[in-house]
Amino acid sequence: MQRNKALDFDSDTDYLARLRKRTVGFDDLKRLRTELVIEATGEHRRKHSIKEKTETLVRVRRDRDIVTVLTNPKRFPSPVRPVGSSSSSTRCTRTQAGTQLDMTLLNRLLRFNAKTVTVQAGIRLRELAEKLAVHGLELVGGCDDPDRTVGGAISSGSLTAAIPGEGGDLASSVVRLTLITPQGHRLDIGQDRADLLRVALMSYGLLGVVCEVELRIRRIRSYAMRNKTLNFDELANYMPDLAQVRAAVKLFLLPYRDTAFVEVRVTGSKNRPVHGWPWKIRNWAWNSVLPRVVHSVGRVIPIRQIRDPLIDTVNEAAQVLVNRGLSASGSNSAEQSGQFRTLSRPQRPTRIRYCTWAFPACQFGAVVKAYRDFCRAHNKTSKFRCDLPAIAYRVDKDQSALLSPSFDEQVFSLSVRTTNTSGWEDFVIEFAEFAAGFAGIPLFNQTCGLTAGYVEDVFGKRLAHLRAIRRRMDPNDRMLNQFFAEHVG
Ligand SMILES: Cc1cc2nc3c(=O)[nH]c(=O)nc-3n(C[C@H](O)[C@H](O)[C@H](O)COP(=O)(O)OP(=O)(O)OC[C@H]3O[C@@H](n4cnc5c(N)ncnc54)[C@H](O)[C@@H]3O)c2cc1C
What we know:
Blueprint: E1 7-8, H1 15-22, H2 29-40, E2 56-59, H3 63-70, E3 80-83, E4 99-102, E5 109-112, E6 116-120, H4 125-133, E7 137-139, H5 150-155, E8 174-180, E9 186-190, H6 194-200, E10 209-219, E11 222-230, H7 232-244, E12 248-254, E13 259-267, H8 277-300, H9 304-326, E14 329-331, H10 332-337, E15 353-360, H11 364-382, E16 390-395, E17 411-418, H12 424-437, E18 441-442, H13 452-473, H14 482-487
Helix pairs in contact: 7-11, 8-9
The chain binds flavin-adenine dinucleotide.
């Protein structure tokens, strides 16, 4: 999709007005907006592109910019979709001809004490973790990808390998949030309105735009890491133990090697010092070097019989040398602030494609074995295979958000990931069928290949409740894009 030049309220103050002066004969805003598109993309000589439908990207700097956009549908057409770091893998932030609100400049830490921190919604987890670390404080949830924004993470699925008692996702540590409703009104929702807070968390920007969030924090707490390598059958046998252990559980799965790396994080009574540099190297190797290497191997070696085992070897070596070899201890703070680089942003989307489902923990032993067999069978018929290890987390039961995937029970999330895109679309559709066979629970921002009927079956009354509130809060469908019209309604 072609995207227009971002409207930045400060540097482009009344860019439209200036443009109007320059472009004589332009009497309607719709055409002016299109002209912006053409200028920004350097396509001004291609007359036919004037007719293309495009989305408007607005960079938000102040809360009142959000109000300006939401209350002016003529200038900023519907649907309006807030965007954080844009790391979602579905069409949840997309619009055909509407308005995207880039929240990443709304990134100030407003205030904190020993127990909570209040931030603007566009601040990235990394930035927040770094600021808190200076005072010996950290976020409660151990979120992996620190480039996501606080607003995006609490408005969508943001699963984490959490230590029991920490909550299954970042949304569970929200104490209060401020929402700008589709009509442009400020609405403060705190724990004193627990039912409304539960609906607002993980509501994917359907009830309005979150501009401020207060999160629980704590003193930095270290954990020790234990690793084990198993084959898939052994892993399935261990699964009941892994579901109960008082530790955070993360799995790296290599189905074509029949190898699973288990990483368990245990908090002890001692708070040992944790160094940031092993986490930086680990993250650089894992999220930058590895995807590049496997992608290059995939491109330069055409013979499958050589290429595929080589990719598996690289993945296995990365796991042993980097993930296991480098860090024996960590903390949420070290993991989030010690990460290497931005993986995904609107201007430079990540190379990694991913799709996540959650499965009831009691079934996950069967799921991992079937997943290995599914990957191999799919590879035989289609020749496609994911070139990065899949990642699984144990996510404990968490009812802090209405659409929480672990609302009913403890689950394991399973994220399949690849840099190899040819064949990916078919893979995720078949993977969706596979997941449905094991009562898989989807996330609207991370699960590709979803069908509306299936979503209805899984979320049932909870989805109906969200739908009713959404329709009451947004009767004119200001926030509703095509994707959510299909899946939430
Ligand atoms: C390499 C990589 C690793 C990842 N690792 C994990 C992981 O470990 N665990 C996990 O759960 N996910 C993971 N993800 C998925 C993704 O990062 C998360 O879902 C994340 O929480 C989305 O945050 P974001 O800022 O990118 O939000 P976006 O993708 O920009 O938006 C997500 C949703 O929230 C809405 N939204 C955004 N900001 C606001 C706001 N201010 N107010 C209201 N609504 C808003 C959007 O409209 C959209 O519906 C990963 C993704 C990548 C690419």
